[in-house]
Amino acid sequence: MERGSAMDIDLDALTVEAVQAGFKAGTFTAEQLARACFDRIERDNGKYNAVIFLNPAAVDDARRIDERRAAGEPLGPLAGVPVVIKDPMDMVGFPTTAGWAKLYSKKGGVDLMPERDAPVVARMRRAGAILLGKTNVPILSHTGSHANDSWAGPTINVVMPDRVPGGSSAGTASAVASCMAVLGLAEETGGSIQNPASAQNLVGIKPTIGLVPNAGVVPLSGNRDVVGPIARNVRDAALCLDVLAGYSSEDPKTLASVGRQPEGGYTAALDPNALRGKRIGLYGPGWRNQPLSDEAAVLYERVKGELAGLGAILVDDPFAGSGFAELRKPTPPLAHFDARGLESIPYDLEKYLQRLGKHAPLKTFAEFAAATKDDDAFGAQGILRYLHSLADFTAAMADPSVPPEMPEFVDVKARYLRIFNAVMDAQRLDGLVFPQMRGELPALHGQDVIQETTVGEINIAGLPGIAVPAGFYASGAPFGLIFVGRQWDEGRLLGFAYAYEVGAGR
Predict the structure, then answer these.
(1) What's the pLDDT band for 6 if we cut at 50, 70, 90?
(2) pTM
(3) Could you tell me which of 95, 97, 90 has the C-alpha nearest to residue 113?
(4) Which of 25, 32, 356, 461 is the most exposed, fewest CB within 10 Å of its CB?
């Protein structure tokens, strides 16, 4: 077989650094790498159902990267790197279906064809990333556990096929875990980055709200939605965040991020000694009054020893007596999910539809509701029926052109942040580290959902979290951690996650 053919490339070993080393050494080209990824998708996607739309232009895009490299043009670290995009993110040439048959013509719905990319997709293109296609999600990204109700069918967990893959960025995680792509874009409103990353033994960055623009992404909540990367290691995730982060005029809340990104980029903080002397808070009833499973507690004890060995000073249950845990309030009839902040979805969807362009078949929330009335997501039996339990949702539905005031959400967000910052100050904490889930993954088609430790708290407060692998349960289910810190502290948290990844041999 000729040197450098697509069949020769070991996709299982590829990181961004390895990709760039391969380009530099002439081991393979970007075009050959893209073709190898498409070969892998053809081989394995039938098994995992991660990718729902393929981008045939990716091979031409990769060839242009090779031409630019051959011409001596300076290129960034993501140039030529194969990436997948979560379906709710607008990508020119493809319908944005949000996993729903009602939004896909081949399943009897209407196609929402964007006239321009979402800012995050445009940024990946400008960085030279090779966009292989779009990935599977549950309907309207409504669950953090799986994609079982997608028009494309369920996505399968690559690490443990009989368990949930994590949602709603299920397809992105499975595509990265199966090495169909090196990186993937994910999005979180309530666990949808951290859950699939942890479920499939990957790294995920849930950014501070306002760090990354989320215009052009089908919303669940303009007050909580964040876009971030899923990757196979911390460095790759940091490199992707460098591309995604920063101000966009399309998303005014990103103005708050100006001056908040580290000089030299997020990889500048990746120090194997980053945990040395740092005070790190641990999970306990002061944060959330829900215990870990027995096996999760044992695995967490092992992690504590590893962190201490890396020089961290561990602080037990720093939120005890703070009132933090008492702020959590699951939204009826849900037993686990606090949906406050999602009241604005009619307004957010109207703004999303307006951005699609003048040729979009649906331009208002009223038209959206009419087109999907046979499967009303917001109705008494719909997947988002719990929204009627939120105080301002009825008013938001009555006039989607006006954003709801949401005083309860604003109040609880303020209280979360006040207590969080007060505890971090009083305990002189540099960060927190918890098991990302309280127990192991539930069955793929069962009734149980992922029992995480930070969904709601960091989504409402808008705090960042970095999910990293930390071993396995006896069953083979992945055990992961999440590092949590103050707003805009992604650089510091990435340093901690990297130090743990390297120091614990993950």
Answers:
(1) low
(2) 0.97
(3) 95
(4) 25
Residues identified as active-site: 86, 168, 192
Q: How confident is the model at residue 189 (pLDDT cuts 50, 70, 90)?
A: very high
Q: Give the count of domains, the chain.
A: 1
The H or E element that residue 228 is part of is strand 226-231
Q: What percent of the chain has pLDDT over 90?
A: 97
DSSP labels, 69-88:
HHTT----TTTT-EEEEETT
Identify whether 1 is part of a domain. Answer: no
Nearest residue to 365 (alpha-carbon basis) of 218, 249, 251, 250: 218
Instruction: Report the DSSP beta bridge partners of residue 251.
Output: 248
- What does each C-alpha distance from 341 to 54, 221, 396, 402, 412 come to in angstroms? 34, 6, 12, 15, 10
pLDDT of residue 13: 85
Residue 412's nearest CA partner among 331, 315, 316 is 331
Rounded to 5 degrees, φ, ψ at 392 are -100, 5
Domain annotation covers residue 489: yes
The burial of 18, by beta-carbon neighbours within 10 Å (0-12 exposed, 13-18 middle, 19 or more buried), is given as: middle
Residue 335 domain-assigned (yes or no)? yes
- What is the 3-class SS of 115-163, one letter each residue? CCCCHHHHHHHHCCCEEEEEECCCHHHCCCCCCCCCCCCCCCCCCCCCE
Domain hosting residue 265, numbered range: 6-503
* DSSP state at residue 481: E
Q: CATH number for the domain including 208?
A: 3.90.1300.10
